[in-house]
């Protein structure tokens, strides 16, 4: 993407220069023609290209960015604003450089006759399959504004759940970091001072003190690189193993069986499945296609495999609840509620109710987990500091005995 400068004339007859980011001068002209009465000569601005490229490389389209865009886009479409013009207006005010570039490109492609969903599909870094298929369903049914509003609600719910988990875990993570820094500071700077005093007095050091002095020596020498390199290598191997089908299945299976966190991970996956599936079916996306889209949002391979196996049963005429029940990964309550939704013909509404229930369960589980972690971390910090202080004071007793 480059920055272009063009002379334009607005509806009041005023002539001025307008800057625009686009892939080419032709694309810039197409976008500007939709905004202004006349567009003159277009030149490339050489000074700002590097800054734009740097900003673009650092930008990341968040769930919140897409939620805000979807809600604003829905309101404008519902108000009768042409899609091309709405995209241009939203691109101008988009705070995210990557989203801004995508909207400008999409606007130019739609102006050339491409459908909105096809244009969005060319920008997967901003609009994933879930977004594209819902927009496609909205275009086909003539209810694009309603679908965009559902998308914004869906994305806002997903963002709220993520923020709930992040905010709940912020305290224990912060305490853990400060505890680690305190341990390193006391071990690297405090223990050697006491070690020098004990050595000058010729005191006999107990095992705990010798152990802490050894740890201090390791942290202050090149040997500290050994655990760092070892941790880096293990992390790299785990990431590489996770990229393999078997490794991903094994690690995700372990994530569902972890003490304390396993039940939480299962509830998050179930809530996400039901929320996305309910929104898709309510927007008019075919059920079998919903399964393919949902699999990209679940985030756990064990549950993804179960959903795909259930899809195979449904293709043969089975019910969704029975197909999912056979896989034995969804909670019984969720299966019963989905079954009721199928029997009453309100599957999309029941899916969203299941999602609401399990999102509340996730919030309560996170609060319970953090309330449990806080005293554990306090005890751990007290044990750590107590161990360091005890290792420093134990030799003093033998010194006092020698003086006596």
UniProtKB/TrEMBL annotation:
Source taxon at top rank: Bacteria
KW rRNA-binding (keyword) present: no
Location relative to the cell: Cell inner membrane
Principal cellular location given in the protein's record: membrane
One Pfam family hit: T2SSF
Keywords for this protein: Cell inner membrane, Cell membrane, Membrane, Transmembrane, Transmembrane helix
InterPro entries given in the database record: GspF/PilC (IPR003004), T2SS_GspF_dom (IPR018076), T2SS_GspF_sf (IPR042094)
Transmembrane segments: 175-198, 218-238, 376-400
Cellular component GO terms, alphabetical: plasma membrane
Membrane topology of this protein: Multi-pass membrane protein
Stretches assigned to the Type II secretion system protein GspF domain: 69-192, 273-395
Gene3D superfamilies reported in the protein's UniProt record: Type II secretion system (T2SS), domain F
Protein family membership: Belongs to the GSP F family.
Protein name as catalogued: Type II secretion system F family protein
Organism: Waterburya agarophytonicola KI4
